[in-house]
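Supplementary Methods. Inverse-folding protocol.

Structures were first reduced to a discrete structure-token string of length 293. This string, shown here, constituted the complete conditioning input.
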């Protein structure tokens, strides 16, 4: 799979507002929900596709919630395969989340999308080879520096779709992966889980679709860390009420250029161009693109 680094500016931030959620739908692939062990295809609107055939099954051998989950068995045939389900976006602010498990992080190339088939738009979290985490829209993905995943471990992926602000925020196990602008008229009408089969199986469980009824008094998309000026000549200033653990500066190709623990970052020695600074605090992580003049 070809990953294309995003050239547009993406603001990475953490939501600080209080979420008040009302459960809309929960899918845990349990017998009590009407699911049966074995082939998922055709059960409650789920469809497998590509070369998946009968290799997408409801199993009782691994799960994060209840006693069953869906597993896609890989065989290393270097083709796309996956499973999907149509859904309906009925709310102004909706949170989509599910648990994922990867058999082999070294050979993983799995994607998890919320999709609007009408506008041909999608937003993705990609768990890639070597344990890398990527995020993006429309097939254009950028790596999240400093974040990785392990084999044989459950993680929660979340997508907060806010039609009031026209934004979607993506999360990996509670860590924000960034805030992206929604395509005009975007509506979620499909959940799509798939892989380029390099030989690593994956599983899905505990799918939740929740209406978010209240963001409290603070906008969810407001960053808790400020970095300025941008563009910068000699110094970048990190401003936050949180305790800073450190910063790292990367090139757009992912090469680590500089790191430290100060709130005033000397960038005078950097070549002119675009960089990404990642700030870690005791509460959050912020990655932001900046320009060195």
């Amino acid at each position: 799979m070809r990953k294309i680094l995003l050239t547009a500016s993406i603001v990475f931030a953490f939501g600080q507002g209080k979420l008040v959620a009302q459960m809309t739908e929960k899918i845990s692939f349990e017998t009590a929900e009407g699911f049966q062990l074995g082939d998922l295809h055709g059960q409650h609107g789920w469809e497998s596709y590509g070369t998946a055939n009968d290799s997408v099954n409801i199993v009782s051998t691994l799960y994060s919630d209840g006693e069953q989950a869906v597993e896609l068995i890989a065989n290393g045939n270097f083709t796309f395969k996956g499973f999907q389900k149509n859904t309906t976006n009925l709310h102004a602010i909706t949170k989509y989340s599910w648990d994922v498990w990867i058999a082999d992080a070294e050979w993983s190339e799995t994607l998890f999308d919320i999709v609007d088939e009408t506008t041909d738009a999608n937003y993705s979290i990609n768990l890639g080879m070597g344990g890398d985490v990527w995020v993006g829209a429309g097939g254009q993905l950028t790596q999240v520096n400093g974040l990785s995943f392990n084999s044989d471990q459950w993680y929660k992926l979340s997508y907060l779709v806010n039609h009031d602000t026209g934004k979607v925020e993506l999360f990996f196990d509670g860590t924000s992966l960034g805030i992206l602008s929604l395509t005009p008229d975007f509506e979620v009408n499909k959940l799509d889980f798939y892989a380029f089969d390099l030989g690593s199986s994956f599983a899905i469980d505990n799918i939740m679709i929740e209406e978010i009824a209240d963001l409290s008094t603070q906008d969810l998309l407001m960053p808790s860390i400020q970095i300025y000026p941008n563009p910068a000549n000699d110094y970048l200033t990190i401003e936050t009420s949180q305790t800073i653990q450190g910063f790292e500066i990367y090139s757009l190709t992912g090469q680590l250029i500089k790191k430290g623990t100060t709130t005033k970052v000397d960038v005078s020695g950097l070549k002119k161009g675009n960089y990404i600074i990642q700030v870690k605090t005791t509460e959050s992580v912020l990655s932001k693109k900046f320009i060195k003049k």
